UniProtKB/TrEMBL annotation:
Species in which this protein is naturally found: Loktanella salsilacus
Keywords, comma-separated and alphabetical: DNA-binding, Transcription, Transcription regulation
UniProt key word DNA-binding: yes
PANTHER family: ANTITOXIN MQSA, MERR FAMILY BACTERIAL REGULATORY PROTEIN
PROSITE patterns: HTH_CROC1
Keyword Transcription: yes
Positions of the HTH cro/C1-type domain: 37-73
InterPro entries on file: Cro/C1-type_HTH, HTH-type_reg/antitoxin, Lambda_DNA-bd_dom_sf
SMART domains: HTH_XRE
Entry's Gene Ontology molecular function annotations: DNA binding
Protein name as catalogued: Putative transcriptional regulator
Length: 97
């Protein structure tokens, strides 16, 4: 099977699944705990500006998360959950890069 055929088959399976049709597609659900963003940041010892910069978001985005006006989703939520468990993870990784 060519790469194109494999890709085409995968897209057809995804469309079938999205349309509620029986499909052989595997669905992986991952649940990530919600975190208190301000508490996570405080554990790192970084200022709001430093923390926002270290995780690649605008300071305004961080402020919205900390004040509950918005909530992190997707990769940001996963990253914050990792930082909650090990506050130095970002600095450790960036230092080694």
């Amino acid at each position: 099977m060519s790469a194109f055929d494999s890709l085409s088959k995968g897209l057809q399976e995804a469309l079938a699944f999205a349309n509620g049709e029986i499909s052989h597609a595997k669905v992986h659900e991952v649940s990530v705990a919600e975190v208190d963003v301000a508490e996570v940041r405080q554990k790192t010892g970084l200022s709001q500006a430093e923390f926002a910069r270290s995780i690649g978001v605008a300071k305004g985005t961080l402020l919205n998360w900390e004040h509950g006006r918005r909530h992190p989703t997707g990769p940001a939520q996963v990253l914050l959950a990792l930082i909650a468990k090990k506050p130095s993870v970002v600095q450790d990784l960036l230092r080694d890069a």
